[in-house]
Specification:
- This protein has helices at about 1-30, 40-50, 50-55, 70-75, 90-95, 140-150, 185-190, 205-210, 215, 245, 250-255, 255-265, 280; strands spanning about 30-35, 60-65, 80-85, 105-110, 110, 115, 130-135, 155, 170, 180, 200, 220, 230-235, 270.
- It is of the alpha/beta class.
- It is globular.
């Protein structure tokens, strides 16, 4: 009887060890570190705790960063597996400047409109001739901001204006606006500066300053084909071997539960874009 009991006990131990072994390795293969900036951290922490993530067997660790360049470099170097903060244009600009630290596009998440904000004026036509407009100091958002000003009818751009063009590609500036380059993460603070008449701010940063682009901006981007380059995306290191695994995060992001959470949390300012990669690369 004792021998039988020992055999059963031994088998039980073997089963427990095997389950622990496979559970450990299964968990390891699904551990993903995602880097993000600003209020998007709330979204990904919500996803990390979601039933959908558990059902997929994904253990998501969310790390917050303060600037896009350091986050992209961390992703390229592999200390972060996936990042979720940048537009497609920003990614293209980063890859153009960093040929040895390339990133790869995984898929689309949302578009949140960039807006023109002012603490002094309540309408575009109130901004005085010769006024100073604060604009991002990185090529992707500089270009995006200038296109927004052109869409608002404040300036005219040259015919060859591209996704990384700067102020030298302005064809006509009838109001003689001056442009002051700023770190775009400081937009909500700069808006209060006495020498600034208006500021161009992306919605992720605007949210940090408790601004709602749909309610607080003088003018904002319209969600259409002309703004598709500004769609936010997920990115990973170009040479990553786990892209198929990382793309499961897109399924989680676009789930009904997560989308309902985002709409309630951000007042409709993050407009879902669930499109194939080809949509951006056409």
């Amino acid at each position: 009887m004792k021998t039988k009991t020992k055999i059963i006990a031994s088998l039980a131990i073997v089963v427990i060890l095997l389950l622990a072994f496979f559970s450990f390795h299964h968990g390891q293969s699904k551990d993903i570190t995602l880097g993000t900036i600003g209020d998007d951290e709330k979204i990904w922490n919500y996803i990390a705790k979601s039933k959908e993530a558990k059902d997929e067997g994904i253990h998501l660790k969310v790390k917050s960063f303060t600037d896009g360049v350091s986050l992209n470099k961390a992703t390229a170097e592999g200390t972060v597996d996936v990042n979720a903060f940048q537009s497609y244009t920003y990614l293209v600009a980063y890859n153009d400047k960093n040929p040895k630290e390339q990133l790869s596009l995984l898929g689309t998440t949302y578009l949140e409109p960039m807006g023109i904000y002012s603490a002094k004026y309540h309408a575009l036509d109130e901004i005085p001739d010769g006024g100073t407009i604060a604009i991002a100091d990185n090529p992707a958002n500089t270009s995006r901001g200038l296109k927004l000003l052109a869409s608002a009818g404040l300036i005219e751009l040259k015919s060859d204006f591209g996704p990384l063009s700067g102020t030298n590609a302005i064809k006509s500036n009838p109001h003689n606006f001056k442009f002051k380059e700023i770190d775009d993460t400081t937009g909500p603070r700069v808006i209060k500066d006495n020498d600034i008449d208006a500021v161009l701010i992306g919605n992720t940063i605007a949210q940090q300053g408790h601004l709602n682009v749909l309610k607080d901006s003088l003018y904002h981007e319209k969600v259409d084909q002309s703004t598709k380059d500004n769609v936010n995306i997920l990115a990973s290191a170009k040479d990553s071997k786990k892209k198929a695994e990382y793309k499961k995060l897109l399924k989680l992001y676009h789930s009904k539960d997560v989308q309902n959470y985002i709409k309630k949390q951000f007042g409709g300012t993050k407009v879902e874009v669930d499109k194939p990669v080809s949509y951006l690369q056409k």
